[in-house]
Specification:
6-stranded mixed β-sheet, binds magnesium ion, 4-stranded antiparallel β-sheet, binds adenosine-5'-triphosphate, Rossmann fold, 2 domains, single chain, alpha/beta, about 40% helix
Amino acid sequence: MKRISIIEVKELTKVFDNNIRAVDGISFTVKKGEILGFLGPNGAGKTTTLNMLATLLRPTSGTASINGYDILKEPDGVRRSIGYVFQDPTLDLELTGRENLDFHGRIYGLERDVRQQRIREMLDTVNLADRADDFVNTYSGGMKRRLEIARGLLHYPKVLFLDEPTLGLDPQTRRAIWEQIQRLNQEESVTIILTTHYTEEADYLCDRIQIIDFGKIVALDTPNKLKARLEGDIVSLTFKTPQHARQIQQMLENKEWIRRIDKVANGNHYVSIHPNIQKIQRSRRDERADGMASNMSYVQASGAEKFSKDMLGADNKNVQHESKRLNLLVDNGGSRVPEIVKLIHGTEIILESVEIHKPTLDDVFLTVTGRNIRQEQGSFMDTVRRHRIIRHARGQRGKR
Ligand SMILES: Nc1ncnc2c1ncn2[C@@H]1O[C@H](COP(=O)(O)OP(=O)(O)OP(=O)(O)O)[C@@H](O)[C@H]1O
Ligand SMILES: [Mg+2]
């Protein structure tokens, strides 16, 4: 049976005053009951898209409808139809879990009896019933996130937006939240858009994944179909120096048994040299550089540059390091290793490690964007904000 769409987005665009084109003409539809993932790195435009859909931010152009309501002409209808779990924590820490939910229920005009019943129901669903009357400042990061999800669903929305639902949480807590999201999607028949930069999260949870990069959708498909784009094995080679990687790359470029060669990030820093995407990547990055420069000068003026280095563990003036690692997409990866070793034999090139794996969504991201998803691409202030959320979530881990 063909499911009907509950969200329709047409050419949605947001250009901020600083000329940053955060969202660049995106169009897509979401079917009723679907979980759609927005997978993209720091600064890709995920939150900006959700904010426009939630009527919190006016698009520069384009439009969208949710549950039949137009985001520009019928914002009240849209707001009644959605629940939003924001990327930044928004709970009142000085209230109990139950009081936070009660406050939200009153804003949405839920009658007392209905409200109290629904609060009990949602506290049970997210396993917080026994902590409901404790102050939220005694909750762990995972508990707070679960309470925010319960709050997002309190007023029976048809659509739920989850902006980075597990950012900064430990793997065990993250998995518990994934299971709850899945259950809520089924039990509450709620359509979900979630944003994430964790490929495992998108793979586990989403019916379809939209890869978003520099404000554009660069791929949209089911997790399996995305992975099937890369048939074969990934042979990942790490060399002693970037120069060695460059030399071997030249030697491998004409081998017909290699379907792709990608250079891969060292930590957060990354340079791609995909011939087919290099040009567009460069021009869009230049656009971003302007925005970044203005943010950096603000930070330097406030004397926070050292803080930035400590926090990011890197010198921000030198964001691009050349990579020592190459990924080859080939058939029967294991059988190609001796050939690669033979090529290197007798040269000065030192191969430090070889790893073979089946393509993952990380590899898909790399091939469609030319970059590693873990690379920071947002402005300096975006990165600081993100690290603050992670610290906040981790700081509370001890509290169960
Ligand atoms: N109010 C604003 N004014 C100017 N630029 C902004 C504003 N909000 C976001 N941006 C810029 O727009 C781009 C997209 O930001 P957005 O927050 O949508 O990214 P994101 O994909 O949600 O990133 P993250 O993973 O860090 O949450 C970034 O370059 C960001 O710096
Ligand atoms: Mg965001």
